[in-house]
């Protein structure tokens, strides 16, 4: 993992104000008209730099995964821009998007989603080489697959096997191999270790870090797991109800979490960091529905420090320390 300076360095991925609203219909579907909108991602911006890991953390339902999929253009955005190497990928035609897809890859929580159960692993791994016309010759493609299998700690003989013959950890290595084979610049990792045992989790995380060093990869790492995000990330964005409420370099965020939501999230995890040694902050209630989000600060219904202004005015992001931003009326 290479810690990047965020100044004087062009981002490889520049996400600007993306929104993703899902229409909600009644029992008649679209015939009965749209009844409302689920605001899954609501004005999210962040940058990922070359060789950097940007972590997105938050509870389930905070919009992290939808942010990742929208940033990849896998689902159509409601608004916003995503610049990859200075081009807004939402403006690209299908043809123009194809070479970008090769460089922007995704690894999912369930590696089965990128491995066809009826196709031998070798053929699945070769597929991106065919789609992107990277290697025309079958023997060259097979050699490339052997090389990638080796990089992810698998053997050449695994080329001929089917996905069901592998353990969860091995399948995640294969999911990673599939993402790596087309030489990507950035990989969006969506809860890549959440389904694995703890010992296997650390092996996969170590592998991700080795591959990052070797290939100068950038990662957008999405997880609900505080320990994992702290271990792997250079910078972290904390998400709550479709918004990033705090963003900071990892060390700064764990030393001085500023947003009451971040403080509560960290206080639930035992650890040696100052924030985690504080008294546990138990939040009231459940995360509200994104169909009917609170007015003002999204967190005011659960925040122990909420004031009148929090119920009516959306707090703006402020830089409180170098590259450490928070959106909370307490800091105005
Ligand atoms: Fe709490 Fe108000 Fe800050 Fe929101 S803006 S986190 S409600 S203090």
How would you describe what is shown here?
This protein has 332 residues and is α/β, with parallel strands linked by helices. It has a domain at 13-112 and 186-195 and 216-331: P-loop containing nucleotide triphosphate hydrolases (Rossmann fold, 3-Layer(aba) Sandwich). 31% of the residues lie in helices and 26% in strands. The protein contains eleven helices and twelve strands. The strands form two sheets. Strands 6-7-8-3-9-10-12-11 form an eight-stranded mixed β-sheet, sandwiched between helices. Strands 2-1-4-5 form a four-stranded antiparallel β-sheet. Strand 9 (235-240) and strand 10 form a beta hairpin. It is globular. Mean pLDDT is 90; it is low at 1-5. Bound molecules: iron/sulfur cluster. Residues 259-260, 297, 299-300, 303, 305-307, 310, 315, 328-330 line the site of iron/sulfur cluster (SF4).
Task: Give short descriptive properties of this protein.
disordered N terminus, eight-stranded mixed sheet, 11 helices, 332 residues, binds iron/sulfur cluster
Write a brief structural summary.
Pfam families: ABC_tran, oligo_HPY. The chain has 332 residues and is of the alpha/beta class. The protein has a domain at 13-112 and 186-195 and 216-331: Rossmann fold, CATH 3.40.50.300.
């Amino acid at each position: 993992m290479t810690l990047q300076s965020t100044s004087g360095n062009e981002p490889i991925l520049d996400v600007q104000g993306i929104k993703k609203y899902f229409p909600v219909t009644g029992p008649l579907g679209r015939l009965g008209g749209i009844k409302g909108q689920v605001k899954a991602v609501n004005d999210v911006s962040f940058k990922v730099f070359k060789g950097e890991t940007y972590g997105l953390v938050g509870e389930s339902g905070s919009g992290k995964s939808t942010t990742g999929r929208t940033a990849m253009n896998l689902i159509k955005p409601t608004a916003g821009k995503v610049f990859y190497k200075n081009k807004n990928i939402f403006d690209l035609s299908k043809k123009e998007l194809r070479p970008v897809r090769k460089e922007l890859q995704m690894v999912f929580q369930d590696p089965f989603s990128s491995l066809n159960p009826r196709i031998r692993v070798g053929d699945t791994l070769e597929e991106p080489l065919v789609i992107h016309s990277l290697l025309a010759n079958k023997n060259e493609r097979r050699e490339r697959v052997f090389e990638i299998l080796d990089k992810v700690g698998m053997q050449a003989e695994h080329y001929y096997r089917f996905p069901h013959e592998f353990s969860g950890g091995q399948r995640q290595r294969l999911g990673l191999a599939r993402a790596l084979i087309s030489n990507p610049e950035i990989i969006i990792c969506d809860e890549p270790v959440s389904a694995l045992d703890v010992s296997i989790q650390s092996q996969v995380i170590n592998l991700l870090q080795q591959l990052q060093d070797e290939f100068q990869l950038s990662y957008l790492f999405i997880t609900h797991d505080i320990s994992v995000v702290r271990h792997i990330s250079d910078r972290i964005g904390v998400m709550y109800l479709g918004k990033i409420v705090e963003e900071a370099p990892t060390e700064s965020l764990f030393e001085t979490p500023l947003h009451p939501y971040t403080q509560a999230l960290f206080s639930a995890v035992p650890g040696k960091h100052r924030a985690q040694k504080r008294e546990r902050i138990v939040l009231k209630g459940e995360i509200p529905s994104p169909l009917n989000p609170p007015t003002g600060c999204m967190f005011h219904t659960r925040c122990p420090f909420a004031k009148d202004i929090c119920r009516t005015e959306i707090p703006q992001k402020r830089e409180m320390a170098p590259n450490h931003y928070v959106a909370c009326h307490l800091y105005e």
